[in-house]
Amino acid sequence: MTFDNSEARNNHGEFGTSDVALKGKQQTSATAQQQPSASALPTERPINPAAHAGSESPEAAAAQAVIVANGHAPLTGLPQKPIELAGQFYVPGPIGRLKDAAQNYMTNAGLPYSPPTTYAKLDKDRAAKIADAYEQEKNDPTDPKVKASYDAMVKETLAQWDAIKATGLKVEWVKPGQKDPYALSPRLAAMDVSQNNHWWGFPTDLGYGTGGGSDTSKDNPLLKPTGEVIDGRAVVANDVFRIVHDMMGHMKEGNGFRAEGEENAWRSHAAMYSDLARPAMTNETRGQNSWVNYGPHGATNRTADAEHTVFAPQKIGLMPDWTHEDGRT
To answer: Would 77 be classed as within a structural domain?
Structure first.
């Protein structure tokens, strides 16, 4: 299998950094707690992978968000304005089945679990320093410390994927030449998972990093086969990580896809990794996303769509320890 880095993609499968403007009256997580109980609302929509199927009004979207949360409270401070996408509405918030899957995984793995309960504002100065750390990082997949962290990350990611499979998530890979199903906004992916328990992903062999700076060597642990077959494809570790990070970083809490949403997705997902695996996981998420938004192309990337975003080169290395600790809790 060869890996195409001429098609720009980030490491975990988003279709760019574009996010749509939020519309409607601000609904904070405090007011979300005042929504009607699930028992008083319509039954949950059936899974329908063929459509994103949002709600017809902001009020209906807020009610649907309560159903999907299944008793879980949103992060304090999570932006929850109704988002309008092609005439449909969606309200960001937790997805109960993913919250439950995360807790079950951590319990079964015997790992301590203290996920964030608040939505953090982005520290731009810190993000710029992390971007610089990623820029300066050496690509060194054979270094024993690097290898140990990445091996642990891959092992734990595959175990998290097993927990996600138990939720019934249907994954489909974008086919060569297929139009981006979430072209309007990556929030369509959140709507799709929330409403349909379905997700479209971009496979690693069709796009990995930007240009010629990415490590596609045999030593890259994320490009090794996993033995998993998803939607008819034999997937590599990076494919599985793309699914798992979207589910456990973004969708689980309703975190967005701009710089601040990415930072909170890292915080949410970092809580699910061991101390050994977290440095590698941080390199693949916080490191790359900081480089995208506050690195050498950050000024244009922060408002770019997928076609015009310059994604980070894929490096197998580790940043300084502070990059995976500062701001995590």
So the answer is: no
pLDDT tens track for 120-149: 999 999 999 999 999 999 999 999 999 999
Say if 266 falls within a structural domain: yes
Which range has the worst mean pLDDT, 24-38, 85-99, 117-131, 164-178?
24-38
Rounded Cα distance between 159 and 164, Å, is 9
Q: Which of 310, 95, 304, 50 is nearest to 200 (CA)?
A: 50
Read off the pLDDT of residues 161-202 as tens digits, 9 standing for 90 and up. Answer: 999 999 999 999 999 999 999 988 999 999 999 999 999 999
Cα 310-257-49 angle, rounded to 5 deg: 110
The answer to whether 127 and 290 are in contact (CB under 8 A) is yes
Q: Which domain holds residue 187?
A: 93-114+122-324
Amino acid at 3: F
User: Given the structure tokens 């990070």, which residue do they identify?
Assistant: 245
Is the pLDDT at 47 greater than 60? The verdict is: no
**Residue 280 in domain:** yes
One-character DSSP codes across 90-118: E-----HHHHHHHHHHHHHHT-------B
Banded pLDDT at 45 (limits 50, 70, 90): very low
Closest CA to 152 of 41, 84, 241: 241
Phi, psi dihedrals of residue 8, rounded to the nearest 5°: -70, 125
With a cut of 80, say whether residue 301 has pLDDT above it.
Answer: yes
Q: Is 126 exposed, middle or buried (0-12, 13-18, 19+ CB in 10 A)?
A: middle
How many domains does the chain fold into? 1
- 54 within domain boundaries: no
